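pinned: reference chain
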Amino acid sequence: MTRLSVLDLVPVREGQTTAQAMAATTDLARAAEAAGCHRFWVAEHHAMAGIAGGATSVVLAHIGNATSTIRIGSGGIMLPNHTPFVIAEQFGTLEALFPGRVDLGLGRAPGAGPELQRALRKDLNAASQYFPQDVAELQALFSGEPELPVKATPGLGANIEMWMLGSSLFGAQLAAKLGLPYAFASHFAPDHLDAALELYRRDFQPRASLAQPYVMPAMTVFCADTEEEAQLIASSQAQAFVNLRTGTPGKLPPPIKDYRSTLPAPARAMLAHMDQAAAIGTPDQVAEKIAAFVARTGADEIIMSGATFEPEARARSVALTVAACREAVPA
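pinned: its structure tokens
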């Protein structure tokens, strides 16, 4: 069976506090571990009322304490927002606390307007130009090769599984050159998926840490007992996506029955475009859609995204999905 993992943005729901959002994410991590998921990732976002994962390494420390076997990591850390040395210390600390369980997924997109750039005291557009060098420096801080004038403590010698994230060909090229596993953000940017995976596999340069290409595309997954219920719980994420793309982001809204039918044609088309990397329906339907996506991409692993207004619905969706995919695999 293809490995299944979970991506969570620590969504803040309407009428909910940040503390409640953190508790819900922690409960989801426990549920993902119980279901048999391989890893649980949190993504870095800033200055968004509906997403509370900005202090990613701090959130991961709490999740690590609440779980025992599932891998924990970033999906991802936006490296232009930071210095490699600080990230080496943070994730070196996580690896010391949770040895053998820590992933560090890295992204280049600064994802910030002028106000956030001032708040971070960074020229993020300029910093993003140094992303390849910063990734190489981060690798050296962990491995000690080449030796740098300043050593990260903790960090040096940490057994971190580094990943390259991407939604375009740039990340695929860099992942191949550095011999890193590659995660593609097809759940919100599916256009370049096939070309990026082809380029990554073609140009992959083996390393001692990874002998052959390893890819993990993301899918939006909502699974429930009935297709109608799955579409209902998926409508909160759909609303949040439309709100974001139309310039009115906010907290995660409650579900709306037949939400898509209420939208103008351009918004419906936008959501339909995202559906090429989505699996929404009953357990059998979701397992079939994931199997078709794996057949298309040759994915070694799928990471499942998708926030629900009721946290219990997301936990149950994950459990149903893993069970259905396991049953679908021939003995």
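why pinned: Residues 82 and 122 are 9 Å apart (CA to CA). The mean pLDDT is 95.
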